Amino acid sequence: MNKYPYLFQPLKIRNVTYRNRIFSAPCAMTYSAHKHSPDLMQMLYFEDKARGGAAAVTISETSVNLKYATRKPNLGNVAILPWDQDGPSEWTKEAFLIKRHGAVPSVQLHHAGATTQPKFIGGRDPIGPDDFVRKDGVHVTGMDEALMQECCEDFAKAAKFMKGCGFKMIMIHGGHGWLLAQFLSPLTNHRTDEYGGPIENRARFPLRICKAIREAVGEDFVIEFRISGDEHTDGGITVDDVCRFAQMAEEYVDIIHISAGSYYSSNTYTFPGIFVEHGCNVAVARQVKKAVKNAKVSVVGALSDPVEMDRIIKDGDADIVYMSRQLIADPQTPNKWRRGKEDDVVPCTRCMNCLGRFDKHELGCDVNPHVGHEVFNLNTFAAPTVSRKVVIVGGGPGGMTAAITARNRGHKVVLLEKEGVLGGTMNYVEHDCHKGDLMKFRDYLIRKTYEKGVDVRLNTEATAELIESFAPDNVICAVGAEALIPPIPGLAEHAVTPRQLYTDDIKAGDRVILIGGGLTGAETGLSYAELGHHVTVIEMTDKIAVQANHMQRPAMMETMERLKDNITCLTNTKCLSVSEGSVTVQGKDGEVYTIEGDLIINALGLKPRAELVEELRKADVQIFEAIGDCTELGQVRGAVQSGYFRALDIL
Q: Shortest CA distance to 243 belongs to which of 306, 303, 192, 200?
């Protein structure tokens, strides 16, 4: 019996039948600049989502022209002329790859409007509802009737082109502060003509585009409109406005898609990370669902629990539930749910590293080593020739990933762990109120390590002699890192390390001091502040959490602002000494003063256990390799990927 009957109930819209209510949200892994159509990497990436059981797969942010619409040259696909050719193209192949797995192919049509940069659109001024000069000095041209008509035609031609390539639906991007949202939101639309003022006027141009697309694609094609149900910005669009727009739009569109956030605020709500609750947009979707008569309502926003998603459909809060990053972490999620294999689903940790490291060209996922490397992985890893004896030292994320992967490939694996439990540094998640998703991933790794039959030896400190006693063919050393303790007077004696917080189960009083405002210090401080403690973070540089990715950090700063009564960050402040119950610091103006605290935490960073690695390397074995933090400090991704790929190399 299907445990989620509503979630896996088919849905028919016009002449398109969807096999369930789980849709894959537009979320790309982008590889090269100015692609006019998908490349092979993208094709395989989106095909994985279709193969995994999603009912529809949406290609993300596809600009309707290069003249004004594109936001950046390296984000999403860029669709260009000639639109009137329905002949072979990479888009046709993309649609086919999705359809052949039973999913419905869709593409998101996008126009950045006033937010783009002239260098991305041939030096032209951006266009938008208002004529104004942005804070960065760029002039934005207010759209007249001619520009509006040209834009309508571009959307219509793009939709018709996609239909000709085999796509069965399109998503109009009318949210997140892009062009159509700029018209819809009173925050960005200050026009005094028939396109400004009440929502009926602000909706006039977006509705023209919807109408133009419907006329271009006919009645046998599904149109979805994405809108920010709440921009989470003062002066932004209201829920009442969204409901009214949905009522007007359903004459032309079939699905109203509820997202949130805006380019003009942080990405906290557009890409809900660990500081935002799961299902954060469902309440708005529920209101829109009550407002419309015929249109279906879809909702996105940190949805990853099949029980909750089934309830959303059952209760009529929405007709369709979208997932984005969960289908990056594990594209097979829908199939696993349908088969009752929930424990096999690799959980998304909501770290935002999949999207937040585009600026560093670090494409991938912390928990899925395959994604982002689909082409490179084709025929790269040969099957093992024999079953090898493998010893893995360290039961953190890297060691467990290596153990699971090696067992999946038929090797005999012994895992040596010094502590009494597996998990390594991830065990701190039990003491961080924002890390519930990472805890699920830790528990997944522990569960799979035992399920796969790894010979786990807890409370076992590895030595070269002990390793030799197993006569292994391969040794993978994943002993991690240890706390960095600079020569600050009193630091070693009176400050605890983050590891001690969970290994020694230390209780905090009211006042907590973090020495070090890097990612660990900032996240730990935010957790204590959320729990009601009064926190002081001491950072000697001028910036908090510089290691955080460019999507995670704004969310952290926004959360710090929300918790400002409980957390204080002292930047440009040097720790001079630590005593029992106090820290002496020097501020940026040279003033020396003392801060009192009930718990003092050394969050000044880690250092690889390089000496231990060299001691273990003395073991007389055929192949010895060190991975993860014991070789190079990183986050979960580095440990997981190195463990995965090193295990694949065992032949």
A: 200
Cβ proximity of 397 and 426 under 8 Å: yes
Residues ≥6 apart with Cβ < 8 Å to 537: 514, 516, 517, 521, 522, 525, 544, 567, 568, 569, 570
- Its pTM stands at 0.93
The answer to whether the beta carbons of residues 490 and 581 sit under 8 Å apart is no
Q: Is the same domain home to 176 and 162? A: yes
Per-residue confidence at 375, pLDDT binned at 50, 70, 90? confident
CA distance 479 to 503: 16
DSSP 262: B
485 vs 516, 596, 603, CA distance in Å?
A: 11, 21, 9
541 DSSP assignment: S
* pLDDT, tens digit, 9 for 90 and up, residues 462-493: 999 999 999 999 999 999 999 999 999 999 99
**How high is the mean pLDDT of the chain?**
92
Q: Could you give the CA distance from residue 473 to residue 570 in angstroms, rounded to a whole number? A: 51
pLDDT in tens, 144-197: 999 999 999 999 999 998 999 999 999 999 999 999 999 999 999 999 999 999
Query: 335: domain range?
Result: 11-348
Nearest CA-CA partner of 42 in 120, 86, 97, 89? 97
Query: Do 325 and 246 reside in the same domain of the chain?
Result: yes
Domain count, the chain: 3
Domain containing residue 441: CATH number: 3.40.50.720
- Total length of the chain: 651
Q: Rounded CA gap, 153 and 634, in Å?
A: 48
